[in-house]
Amino acid sequence: MKTFVTIPLLVLVILGAIGTAYFATKWYTRPKVEESKARIADSAVESVQLDVKNINREIDRNSGIEHALMKDKEQLVISYNQLKDSSRQEIDSLTKLLGIRNRQLSHYVGLAFTSTREDEPMTETDTTYNFKDNWLSVDIKKPANGVPALLNSKYNASPNLAWYWESNRFIGLRSPLFGRELIGNFWLSDPNATISGVKYLRIEPPEKRFGLAVMAVGEYYHDDVLFGGGVSVDIGRLRLQGNYLRDFSSGKWYPAFRGGFKLIDIN
């Protein structure tokens, strides 16, 4: 009698697997924009240049330091070929200098800044003029005995880079549904410095859309403990999994099938 019950259940499992695989194939092959490209700004799908165009500048009220903010997605590409010709040449020179191949490059950041001081008083000695603050020191030797005036200077200001997710009120979930964005924040420790330009690039290959895994599987279900092996197939966000499990209470082996669809990525 148990055999007659098991056979229909096995048939149902097989039919369910075939049906799920069929609809999964239909979903996977439907006309759509690639997920990897959907995460990139429309302009970035065509071409991107290293120089960041959209920079939001903010001045810290307490320190007077200028911050330059940018959105990571506007400088995100999925391949080196999406760069404009001029930017591609610049990256070629960079990778040649580093002794690496273009496909090895993951991130690139370049920061240009200007530090200005106007009408700052200098101290005078018999032989020099001097200026010094927390970041810049200048010594000018007065001309003497046919030797022209000589300049010695030292500048010490540290550039800072920070990346953070734009604040979101929805309990920290990360998903395209909630529109969170990765923000880059650039600044120097010198309040006299202004950021005159930012170069930035991040290369992120498309997500792997197909994967196959062999697993050891354990389950606890309705007071039964089951253990065995399984094979899972990942198709984009869809996962199909077939298992063959031993029920320790009855000592018998059973086939099992399940499917799942990933809705939200949680950091």
From TrEMBL:
Q: Which domain of life is it from?
A: Bacteria
| UniProt-recorded name of the protein | Uncharacterized protein
Q: Which organism is it from?
A: Parapedobacter indicus
